[in-house]
Amino acid sequence: MKRILLIVSGGIAAYKALELIRLLRARGHGVTCVLSTNGAQFVTPLSLQALSESKIYTDLFSLTDESEMGHIQLSRSADLVVVAPASADILAKMAVGLAGDLASTLLLATDKPVLVAPAMNVRMWLHPATQANMASLRARGVLVVGPDEGAMACNEFGPGRLAEPPAILAAIEACFDVPTPLAGRHALVTSGPTHEPIDPVRYIANRSSGRQGHAIAAALAGLGARVTLVSGPVGIADPPRVTVHRVETASQMLAACQAALPADVAVFAAAVADWHVARASAGKIKKVPGGAPPSLELVPNPDILATIAAPGSQRPRLVVGFAAETDDLMANAQAKRARKNADWIVANDVSPETGIMGGTDNAVHLITADGVEHWPLLAKDEVARRLAGRIAGALQ
Questions:
Q1: What is the pTM of this model?
Q2: How far apart are CA 119 and CA 321, in angstroms?
């Protein structure tokens, strides 16, 4: 039996928390419920208590609750904290670390895994603020189930429906039965862009956010690997249980990768600049009124993928490269795999209209010696989980 701390936040989908409690209890799990002020507009403490057969907590400043248990102990006494439904409001509070009520305080104070089941209007779910909050939470290791796509109570249709209680139950139980097929393996992952200086204040870069590389590092760590992540400059949180080395330039990234060897698998998801300025200026380049713009001499950066994939005693057993293309995706990606001696290439179309570069979703094609797998458009963390699973299978 596992101990579940269930936080019920506001939203019409809160009524499904009652069915989730019933399913959890039927499976033998203990459930302690925290009902937010907004959640209490949709379900009652009495309903939750009747099904959970446990005291319901609602008030951060309850003298009785604090003397009996205390919110810190409550936040750490469970095996898993589940937020279902997770409203846009509570997800935003989690992302920035607010602690203004009992639910958000528990989430900030807990040292246990957290699983959220988002539920909200489709426009709220797709809003850039919510998507940025979700990316931040995923990068910190918060687990996510749903949302589903379908008709809303507000008569709109799209993603934002709470995942069905059986799916949430499955996600909860998966948290307690996580295989570790990569235990004892070392994985090297690169992520983010590189910044190649022009002068002390300007640089050559690209639009990579690092979300895909960071998600891959987290997924490999989740399967038990010891992960070294070499990251260019990004604005997202470090993945949990991962050793991170921060770099700026391609040369620094190559040096960090070589220092991290040996590794069983290397995944090169970083968007490395192809060139750097031959002679970066030591001072800021000034604009001369009426003068011509400066001429920049560009020279090639080191080829990190080809260098690590080259035959030799330090070559990882499995080398996975990425091919971000805007034209002739499959032909260019397959040629890259052969040219750079990579075992696999993950190809994706990063044309501006796809929104993939810097976005939260990705549609990839996995190219191996056995052929090509075409994956559908998925959240980047789901792409990472699928790729990590394939890597685990290849290393068996």
A1: 0.63
A2: 36
Number of H helices, E strands in the chain: 14, 22
Q: Which long-range contacts (CB under 8 A, 24 or more apart) does 166-170 make?
A: 166/23, 168/20, 168/82, 168/84, 168/117, 169/20, 169/23, 169/24, 169/27
Active site residue 154: yes
Q: What is the DSSP string of 37-54?
A: TTGGGTS-HHHHHHHH-S
Stated as kind and residue range, the H or E segment containing 123 is helix 122-126
Name the class of domain 3-174. alpha beta
- Joined tokens for residue 256: 């960090």
Q: Is 290 exposed, middle or buried (0-12, 13-18, 19+ CB in 10 A)?
A: exposed
Assigned CATH for 186-394 = 3.40.50.10300
For helices 165-174 and 16-26, angle between their N-to-C axes, nearest 10 degrees: 50
Please report how many Cα atoms fall inside a 13 Å half-sphere around the Cα of residue 259, on the Cβ side: 12
pLDDT one digit per residue (tens) for the chain, 396 residues: 789 999 999 888 999 999 999 999 888 889 999 998 888 888 999 999 999 888 889 877 665 555 555 667 787 788 899 999 999 999 999 999 998 889 999 999 888 889 999 999 888 999 999 999 998 898 888 998 888 877 766 667 778 888 888 888 888 887 886 678 999 999 999 999 999 999 999 999 998 999 999 999 988 988 999 999 999 999 887 887 789 999 999 999 999 999 999 999 999 999 999 999 999 999 999 988 888 888 899 999 999 999 999 999 999 999 999 998 889 999 999 999 999 999 999 999 888 888 777 778 889 999 999 999 999 988 888 899 899 999 999 998
Do residues 194 and 302 make contact, with C-beta atoms less than 8 angstroms apart? no
- Distances in Å between the Cα of 246 and the Cα atoms of 192, 233, 250, 390 are 10, 7, 12, 27
Give the Cα separation of 144 and 130 in Å (integer).
13
Residue 246 · residue 231 · CB < 8 Å = yes
CA angle in degrees (0–180, nearest 5) for 107-111-114: 55
List the chain domain ranges: 3-174, 186-394
Chain position carrying tokens 């003298």? 63
